[in-house]
Design a protein that fits this description.
The complex is a heterotrimer of chains A (120), B (134) and C (361). With 120 residues, chain A is α+β, with helices and mostly antiparallel strands. Chain A contains three helices and five strands; from the N terminus they run αβαββαββ. Chain B has a four-stranded mixed β-sheet, covered by helices on one side. In chain B, strands 5-6 form a two-stranded parallel sheet. Classes of the chains: A alpha+beta (120), B alpha/beta (134), C alpha+beta (361).
Chain lengths: 120, 134, 361
């Protein structure tokens, strides 16, 4: 019956570098990190807020503000899949640690002026 | 590829028949799978599921909410003690003759019967709004 | 006359992965009776099903447990698809099988480490978690998440895993399988490990059947029951047999899980070879809600899990009931603990592979 069957592995592990990796290693391309918005492309249709299962996204249509509560977001990509203007993407890097509960807001520019009605 | 859908058989029985039926099933070699409780309006629907050779059979017992008592089958199937204690804890039922009875303390929780809250007298009216001119 | 004392075991205990409370009635180091008590992580997820849209409930179902998370999501989707009479594409079924079996491998490797920790074999514990990282890397590359994948949805999969990715996965599997041998060899054959597991926690076949044991706990006592044989998700087209041992002790339960790891590698290879091209998603008609009742049975790493659904035609389910395998194994656990030594209690608790988050939902 084998004795000390792990001795070789333990000795090798004692002299090699740690197997734990820092969280700052380069993530995979598909890793679900955090939601990024390109606010200039957003048309404030509020579809992302409706699809969000945790209500982490809040859209102010009139004031053209898009808010996300990073601590509520579960990185499920429902908003990314729902966006009609493709303004939302999921970046592979995790959002940085927070020291206080905070909601990130992004303000969009004023809508482009409507073209004047043609003269009768 | 056709989706696999398991055959669901439900047999309705009265609650008094439960211990006898359980004894017969145990003799025939059925294994207890689970006991579920569904709140259906004024009644509580209990489903006792048994399995033998990959075939699932459900027995449905309807119990009125006003008289939520059901006899225990843990004399025959000891495993049922966990499911019946869950019925007592989460649905406020009373199971008669439980072999290992926790009397509503199997789940350590604060509220009584959280999935079937007891309807009591209307709650205290909210505190009157602060007087105008504050 | 021996003196009786009651020792509370858990919920905080260095050996337990999750909080369960056992009151052990001892007579001088011999356990006479064990009284369980749960509820430390009860979140009322079954009640949440009545408040959430049934499409969004997948996210909650996945989070019932961290280790078995994929199969919870898959089981929920399987049940709703049966209620809605949906026929999802074959590629989606095969991808679910591949991810489900990878989940099973990672769960068993995690369990192997925890069992080794229970009797103090820390090196095996650390090394098995090192090997588990290799599997988690595969899963993160394919789905984006290590533990919670977020890839199952009602109607199929949310995203495709393309054929190149599957081929890369297949190439890495051989290396991971060799690493698994390094863990499973000592777990079954090392003399000190055998002294702690052989003959400990006996569960005879009759008792296992009457107490409703499921999963490896039942299969190690000679009961040949594996819910994958029912044939959901295309398992009926794959070639495998339930793994059965007759030892009825902790060593037999370890052997069943070890052999299941290698069986899962084989199933993944079969599934990858049989994955056709095509869609992974069925477009659902909007406004169609589940109506009727259905009980879906799947095989989790810990045993047979039953999901009972009742829909009433509205977007919220009337009842969503989950009976997880550890809940069914609580009664056999209580029986196994009678007559064992106090030092064997952690080993026996860990051989049923307790997942208390699942038990208490």
């Amino acid at each position: 019956m084998p004795f000390f069957s792990f001795a070789g592995l333990v000795a090798k592990a004692a002299v090699s570098k740690p197997a734990t990796r820092l969280a700052a290693r380069e993530p995979f391309a598909a890793t679900r990190g955090h939601v990024v918005i390109q606010i200039s492309a957003c048309n404030f249709c509020t579809l992302c807020a409706k699809r969000c299962p945790t209500d982490a996204i809040e859209v102010d249509r009139g004031g053209r503000v898009w808010r996300i509560d990073r601590l509520k977001c579960i990185q499920c990509r429902a908003c990314v899949d729902a966006c009609t203007k493709k303004s939302l993407t999921l970046d592979p890097h995790y959002s940085p640690a927070m020291t206080a509960k905070d909601v990130e807001s992004f303000k969009g520019e004023a809508p482009p002026p409507k073209p004047a009605a043609p003269a009768a | 590829m056709a989706q696999f859908i398991e055959e669901q058989e439900i047999i309705a029985i009265a609650r008094e028949e439960l211990p006898a039926r359980a004894a017969q099933l145990a003799k025939e070699g059925w294994r207890i799978v689970h006991v579920a409780c569904i709140v259906q309006g004024d009644q509580l629907e209990l489903l006792y599921a048994f399995d033998r050779a990959y075939k699932l059979v459900n027995y449905r017992v309807l119990v009125p909410k006003s008289d939520p008592v059901v006899p225990s089958i843990s004399g025959v199937y000891l495993a049922a003690f966990a499911y019946e204690n869950e019925l007592q804890d989460l649905f406020g039922m009373r199971v008669d003759g439980l072999v290992l009875d926790f009397k509503g303390q199997f789940y350590r929780k604060r509220h009584q019967a959280p999935f079937n809250p007891p309807t009591c007298a209307p709650a205290e009216p909210a505190a009157p709004a602060p007087a105008a001119g504050n | 006359m021996a003196q009786r004392t009651i020792v509370p075991f858990g919920p905080q205990h260095p050996v337990l992965p999750e909080p369960i409370h056992l009151d052990l009635v001892l007579e001088d180091e011999l356990v006479v009776q064990a009284i369980p008590s749960i509820g430390y992580v009860h979140r009322g997820l079954e009640g949440l099903a009545q408040k959430k849209d049934f499409h969004e409930m997948v996210y909650v179902a996945e989070r019932i447990c961290g280790i078995c998370s994929f199969i919870h999501g898959m089981g929920y989707c399987t049940g709703i698809e049966a209620l809605l009479q949906l026929d999802i594409p074959k590629r989606a079924n095969r991808l679910r099988v591949i991810l489900g079996e990878l989940s099973r491998i990672h769960s068993h490797i995690l369990w192997a480490g925890l069992l080794a920790d229970a009797f103090g074999f820390e090196s095996l514990f650390m090394h098995s978690w090192r090997v588990r990282e290799l599997i988690l890397d595969l899963l993160e590359e394919a789905t984006g998440g290590r533990v919670i994948f977020g890839i199952c949805k009602v109607g199929g999969m949310r995203r495709d895993i393309d054929d190149d990715q599957l081929k890369r996965m297949l190439d890495k599997l051989d290396g991971i399988e060799r690493e698994c041998c390094v863990i499973t060899e000592p777990l079954l054959n090392d003399s000190t490990v055998r002294k702690r597991t052989v003959g400990v926690g006996m569960l005879p076949q009759e008792t296992a059947h009457l107490l409703g044991a499921v999963g490896p706990t039942a299969r190690a006592s000679g009961i040949a029951m594996d819910a994958r044989r029912l044939g959901y998700a295309g398992y009926n087209k794959l070639n495998f047999e339930p793994i059965v041992e007759t030892g009825c002790d902790s060593h037999a339960r370890s052997a069943v899980r070890v052999r299941e790891i290698y069986q899962s590698f084989d199933l993944i290879r079969q599934a990858i070879a049989d994955t056709p091209g095509g869609d992974v998603d069925l477009k659902l008609k909007p406004g169609v809600n589940p109506k009727g009742h259905y009980a879906a049975r799947l095989e989790q790493p810990r045993g047979e899990v039953v999901y009972y659904f009742e829909g009433n035609g509205t977007p919220n389910l009337h009842r969503f009931r989950v009976r997880t395998p550890t809940f069914a194994n609580v009664a056999p656990l209580v029986k196994m603990l009678e007559g064992c030594q106090l030092a064997d209690v952690p080993v026996i608790v860990l051989t049923i592979d307790p997942c208390i988050s699942c038990t208490e939902r």
